[in-house]
């Protein structure tokens, strides 16, 4: 395994009395795109929140360069880790350019409100996410897809080595989904950003991840390169779904097609499918 | 986005509406509309102040007023210097304190209705102050301490009852209104219990009044506000990020709990000292921040504009309060309430129809 700046050790996460993640270890591979997948309520978003210090561990710790996040100032963390929550709320009536500029917050001081570095980072982030033309528009008035790109632009403007994204493709139509994920990979390839994303879509995860982490019921079931771990057995084990895994016609990677092939015991597979539907 | 695969050559983007001032490594963003609005408000306030000093039972010519202000002997020294000026200065400071205090509490609660005079802060300050008066805490100079303590206790009560693992904006306001009503009845209980003279004093005080107030009230308030000025400068910048949801603000490196607590304490403190000096001048803390925001069209409430507007509202209301039924002087709170109440109703109706909910979990 490659070196890792962000690690979780014996991590137990809970909301009040409900334990969501228990005794989890994870090394986020440096300079790679890591994607966390799993069924609803498996704890994948909870894990991401803990990696981004939004949730304090009940037990265990998250370490950034060997230091516990809970011992670091939140502003110091923000200079290394950028994070886009699932449903961020913008200040009322704020414009696109203003919102993206807020991403510079952890780098600014009261006497340094708009450095050349700030301007460069914001301009670049807006250009990359294709929202420059919307600069003067109020965020409230944008469509879901536009708004999501603006939020991503804000996270990019923060200019951190690590970027955590909680379902960044929600609200987006398929072409914007692909655009966002292409952008994420491009940031990784060209700028060496380490990305951790939670994604709903297993095929998108398999396509964009260097390192895929499959979770179920608060623990990691499998992790590794998608070509190595995405199998019929894993899909059945994690999602309880009968499927066929074929080579992706575009990338050659694994492509999961739900349903069971004719020559297998179709009644058992159908039962598994209907159990999942219920 | 495909075009951006090539290194970007796009024109530089800046937050809209701001002018950039750069000196070496230091850089400042000035919101143009807010700067212009502040200048206009300052000029307007200065004009109303001049009118305030000229008009009254005896008209004093502007030239004479200016003489007195610049320290040259004038026949108007007593009327202007001893009667009108201290009251004016107190009014300006009370208004500014309500303007900033209201802005901060509204920001933290993310609700324009959550102003100190609605959610019980002013009532808490009144209750403890009048309690102290009634039970014979003789010296007037200690009353401001009771006001601050009362405001803080009321805010703590609201927070205690409204907290359910998070602060829901609508619940916060409703509980605040409940606490305000309860404390108002405590005030009336004290007034009924107290002797006639105290009761009369208290009655005038709780309407919010500058009548008979002077340097004795203005000086301690002035020193307090001066001491708090650095905090307000901090707040002006810190409050920008309190308007995000918790996760986003934290992701941006804002120590959210500490920031919210600091802003709330400062807001409650300002509203309470202002109440201590002049009584709860209704609606100023509600009106000033919202008007300021509509003037500047900024995402957050501009504190300087809000302070100026608060000062302007109080002085502009106190002028007719002094003149309308002269020689009887109305409490300034009667006039601010006359303007503020319809605005409050409008705000509630609009809030319902446009936004539905008032901002979710804070």
Q: How does this model look, in words?
A:
The complex is a heterodimer of chains A (about 280) and B (about 350). In chain A, strand 4 and strand 5 form a beta hairpin. Chain A has ten helices and twelve strands. Chain A is an alpha/beta fold. In chain A, helix 4 runs antiparallel to helix 5 (about 145-155). Chain B has about 350 residues and is mostly helical. Chain B has one domain (about 35-45, about 80-355): ABC transporter involved in vitamin B12 uptake, BtuC. Chain B is built from 13 helices and two strands. A two-stranded antiparallel sheet of chain B has the order 1-2. The longest helix of chain B has about 35 residues, at about 75-110. Chain B is globular, with a radius of gyration of 22 Å. Chain B starts with 17 loop residues before the first strand and ends in a 7-residue tail after the last helix. Residues about 1-10 and about 355-360 of chain B have low confidence and may be disordered. The interface between A and B is large, with 59 and 43 residues.
Draw up the topology in text:
The complex is a heterodimer of chains A (278) and B (362).
Chain A lengths: L3 E12 L2 E12 L3 E5 L6 H8 L7 E6 L2 E2 L5 H5 L2 E4 L11 H7 L13 H13 L15 H14 L4 E5 L7 H18 L2 E5 L3 H7 L2 E6 L2 E6 L1 H4 L2 H8 L3 E5 L6 E5 L7 H12 L1
Chain B lengths: L17 E6 L2 E6 H23 L7 H8 L7 H33 L11 H14 L8 H20 L6 H25 L2 H12 L7 H24 L7 H6 L4 H23 L5 H13 L6 H21 L8 H24 L7
Antiparallel strand pairs in B: 1-2
Helix pairs in contact in B: 1-3, 1-12, 3-8, 3-10, 3-11, 3-12, 4-5, 4-6, 4-7, 4-10, 5-6, 5-10, 6-7, 8-10, 11-12, 12-13
């Amino acid at each position: 395994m490659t070196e890792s700046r962000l690690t979780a050790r014996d991590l137990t996460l809970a909301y009040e009395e409900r334990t969501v993640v228990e005794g989890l270890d994870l090394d986020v591979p440096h300079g790679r795109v890591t994607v966390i997948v799993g069924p609803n309520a498996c704890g994948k978003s909870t894990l991401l929140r803990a990696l981004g210090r939004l949730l304090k561990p009940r037990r265990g710790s998250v370490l950034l360069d060997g230091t516990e996040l809970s011992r670091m100032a939140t502003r110091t963390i923000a200079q290394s880790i950028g994070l886009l929550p699932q449903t961020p709320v913008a200040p009322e009536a704020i414009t696109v350019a203003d919102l993206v500029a807020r991403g510079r917050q952890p780098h600014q001081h009261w006497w340094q409100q708009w450095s050349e570095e700030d301007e460069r980072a914001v301009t670049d982030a807006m250009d990359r996410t294709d929202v420059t033309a919307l600069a003067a528009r109020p965020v409230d008035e944008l469509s879901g897809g536009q708004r999501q790109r603006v939020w991503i632009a804000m996270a990019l403007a923060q200019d951190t080595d690590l970027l955590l994204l909680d379902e960044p493709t929600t609200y987006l139509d398929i072409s914007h989904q692909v655009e966002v994920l292409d952008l994420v990979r491009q940031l990784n390839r060209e700028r060496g950003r380490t990305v951790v994303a939670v994604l709903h879509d297993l095929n998108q995860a398999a396509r964009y991840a260097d390192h895929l982490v499959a979770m179920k019921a608060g623990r990691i079931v499998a992790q590794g390169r998608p070509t190595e771990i995405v199998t019929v057995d894993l899909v059945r084990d994690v999602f309880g779904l009968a499927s066929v895994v074929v080579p992706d016609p575009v990338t050659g990677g694994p492509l999961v097609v739900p349903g069971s092939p004719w020559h297998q015991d179709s009644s058992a597979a159908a039962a598994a499918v209907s159990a999942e539907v219920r | 986005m495909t075009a951006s695969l090539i290194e970007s050559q796009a024109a530089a983007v800046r937050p809209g509406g701001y002018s950039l001032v750069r000196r070496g490594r230091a850089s400042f963003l000035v919101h143009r509309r807010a700067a212009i609005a502040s200048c206009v408000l300052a000029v307007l306030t200065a004009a109303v102040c001049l009118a305030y000093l000229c008009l009254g039972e005896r008209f004093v010519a502007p030239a004479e007023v200016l003489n007195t202000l610049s320290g040259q002997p004038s026949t108007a020294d007593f009327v202007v210097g001893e009667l009108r000026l201290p009251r004016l200065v107190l009014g300006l400071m009370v208004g500014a304190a309500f303007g900033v205090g209201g802005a901060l509490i509204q920001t933290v609660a993310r609700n324009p209705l959550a102003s100190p005079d609605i959610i019980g802060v002013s009532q808490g300050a009144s209750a403890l102050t009048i309690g102290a008066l009634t039970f014979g805490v003789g010296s007037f100079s200690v009353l401001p301490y009771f006001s601050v303590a009362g405001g803080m206790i009321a805010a703590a009560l609201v927070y205690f009852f409204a907290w359910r693992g998070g602060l829901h904006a609508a619940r916060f306001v409703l509980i605040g209104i409940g606490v305000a009503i309860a404390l108002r009845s405590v005030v009336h209980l004290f007034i009924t219990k107290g002797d006639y003279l105290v009761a009369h004093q208290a009655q005038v005080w709780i309407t919010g009044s500058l009548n008979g107030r002077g340097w004795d009230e203005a000086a301690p308030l002035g020193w307090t506000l001066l001491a708090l000025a650095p905090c307000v400068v901090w707040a002006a910048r810190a409050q920008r990020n309190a308007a995000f949801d918790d996760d986003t603000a934290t992701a941006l490196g804002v120590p959210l709990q500490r920031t919210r607590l600091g802003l709330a304490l400062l807001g409650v403190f300002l509203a309470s000292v202002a109440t201590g000096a002049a009584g709860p001048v209704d609606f100023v803390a509600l009106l000033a921040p919202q008007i300021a925001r509509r003037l500047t069209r900024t995402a957050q409430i501009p504190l300087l504009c809000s302070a100026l507007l608060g000062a302007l509202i109080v002085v502009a209301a106190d002028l007719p309060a002094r003149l309308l039924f002269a020689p009887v002087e109305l409490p300034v709170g009667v006039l601010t309430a006359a303007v503020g109440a319809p605005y409050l109703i409008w705000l509630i109706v609009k809030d319902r129809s446009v936004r539905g909910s008032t901002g979710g979990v804070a």
